[in-house]
Design brief:
It contains 9 helices and no strands. With about 200 residues, the protein is mostly helical. The chain is rod-shaped.
Length: about 200
């Protein structure tokens, strides 16, 4: 059987394998490509190979060569992970830290599996950056706590039912914010403002 075209394709495939970009070809494609290349070399070296076997080996290897464009360079993602791991999470809300940790774990799986396409790797970098940006500071609740303590000590029965009811509603909301570990600074300020306003309107 004529093996000239197969030999040329094998030579080309070997060149592609030695190219610097080959390291970033996704693992699934690498496995398929290397298996096809190995099979083609065996057919080339088999003196009893039929025309059909040569043709099949050529077609298979050619189809695998066409897949080599499926690449995923994880260098930038590795850098992004290193940056994310270096970010201080001290004094940040539990919820926002959990989001960042989950993003780091997801990115590390992508790097380890080496089976993710470039556009998905790039999207993962953005996800990491957003998780860092969205880290929320644990707000100071001292003012709110003091206000809640003051209201708790008040005798709301001495005021009109309407204004007392407004204080009770604002008080309940303030207590909920106090007990919420993921409450933002804005939520704390809002609770202080609402409770203060309700107390000032007591009549």
């Amino acid at each position: 059987a004529d093996k000239e075209e197969l030999e040329a394709l094998i030579a080309y495939a070997k060149e592609q394998k030695e190219a610097a970009e080959y390291q970033w070809v996704v693992k699934t494609v690498k496995d398929l490509f290397e298996e096809a290349l190995e099979g083609a070399i065996k057919v080339k070296e088999d003196t009893t190979a039929t025309e059909k076997e040569v043709s099949e080996a050529y077609d298979l290897l050619l189809s695998r060569v066409h897949l080599l464009g499926f690449v995923g360079n994880t260098t930038d993602l590795q850098t992004a992970v290193a940056v994310a791991k270096g970010v201080s999470t001290e004094g940040k809300t539990e919820e926002s830290v959990a989001v960042l940790e989950a993003a780091i774990a997801k990115a590390e799986r992508m790097i380890e599996e080496a089976n993710t396409l470039q556009e998905d790797l790039d999207a993962m970098i953005i996800e990491l950056q957003e998780a860092i940006f969205n880290l929320r500071k644990i707000p100071n609740k001292d003012e709110l706590q003091n206000l809640v303590n003051s209201v708790k000590a008040m005798n709301l029965g001495a005021y009109t039912p309407e204004t007392a009811s407004a204080v009770k509603a604002a008080y309940a909301k303030a207590v909920a914010v106090l007990n919420d570990d993921n409450a933002t600074e804005d939520k704390v300020k809002e609770a202080v403002a609402e409770l203060s306003t309700a107390v000032n309107k007591l009549a």
